[in-house]
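Repro:
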Amino acid sequence: MPKIYVLHENADWMAPLRAALDARHLPFEEWHLAEGSIDLGAAPPEGVFYSRMSASSHTRGHRFAPELTGSVLAWLQAHGRRVVNGSRALELEVSKVKQYLALNAVGIPTPPTVVAVGEDALRDAVRKAETPFILKPNRGGKGLGVQLFQSAASAEAEIDRGLFDDAPDGTFLVQRYIASAEPVIIRNEFVGGERVYSVRVDTSGGFLLCPADVCNVPETPQSFEFCPAGVTPEGARPKFEILPGFSHPLHAKMKRFLADNAIEVAGIEMIVDTEGKAWVYDINTNTNYNPDAEAAAGLTGSDGSGMGALASFLGRELKQIARLAAAD
């Protein structure tokens, strides 16, 4: 019988999805794609294939996992299998350059950006940049490598210390810093192409904004190399907070962007500047959800939660596959 196949490279991020699939009694299997092989002469099994490949795989020692996943997705799609977040989603997951161009194509503003490959080109770009500016790798993940600079000299000093070696694809972005009225961003979560909810994320602690429960570790210099979602001091406003009833004019364009690029599951991050204009600066097609924020909003375990909505969506797609198989 067909089942759900989850393609990923990080077992630590799988626990909430496993629980949601189990709660709905959905058959599933994990394909861990840190390494492996494919027999192109063989046919893949029947089922629904959901890709959770992450741009940050290299930080876990899985540098070529996206490349292997790309081959697997091409194989699945060549055989007509039902794939959720297929080749185009992966292409955008590992390239902010391609994200921005695709977002701009549907009228979504992105921060003005210069792309640089090569140390000389990078130095030239930062010298010409309006300050302050953001320097980030084209292929990053979890906010790693994203740095704010107040001057070209401070950026060049960081390049001298080896920043140039931190981009997996050798490509850096020099980006205008978008100043917001308060240190927050809004992350808009979509499943099946529909928005599940939007969440307010406090950025006062830095750019590492992974919402996964496994990322909630103490903020020490060592933990910043991992993926801290932050620790909320007693009495303080939570770092992640779901915004009930939130809506924004860009939501309709976000839905069009997802449909145009065959992306069905994603977190779309935007920042609102001091004049009220919203800019989208990142798309995460391997989205995670913050359990504390969902619990505070009364969404834990329901289809209104991120993983609940995802598991139910995959279940509906599996039911459709099974119905078609029975008809044959």
